[in-house]
Amino acid sequence: MADLEKIVAQLSDLTVLEAAELVKKLEEKWGVSAAAPVAVAAAGGAPAAAAEPVEEKTEFDVFIKDAGPKKIEVIKVIRTLVNLSLTEAKTLAETADGKVLAAVGKEAAMDAKKKLEEAGANIEVK
After folding, report:
1. Which one of 45, 63, 73, 102 has the minimum C-beta count within 10 Å?
2. Does the predicted model carry a pTM greater than 0.85?
């Protein structure tokens, strides 16, 4: 009998492209289509994402839309998040769609967003 734990471990290591290729090969070998069960699962309320692995975004950018009424507080927070001079932080705070952080993890992006919003800024994470 096959070692199921080993199979699960191997499947977990597949990339999205490899998983898609595996699905195609299994469909050909067994003469079935994974498309029909996905449609039924989606109609039945099960999430369609469960049928096909999707890479989760791992890098985020934090943009300042507006410094808000407490610009000095926002500038202070920007200086703690990014190593900028006072002038550079002020310019960034006054720049609509200025990129405060680039290619950071989700936790870091959400933490920065929280701190900047508490200081009064309008922030967007992409």
Report:
1. 45
2. no
Q: At what angle do helices 71-81 and 106-118 cross, to 10 degrees?
A: 160
Task: Give the C-alpha distances (Å, rounded to integers) separating 78 from 13, 26, 117.
Answer: 38, 52, 11
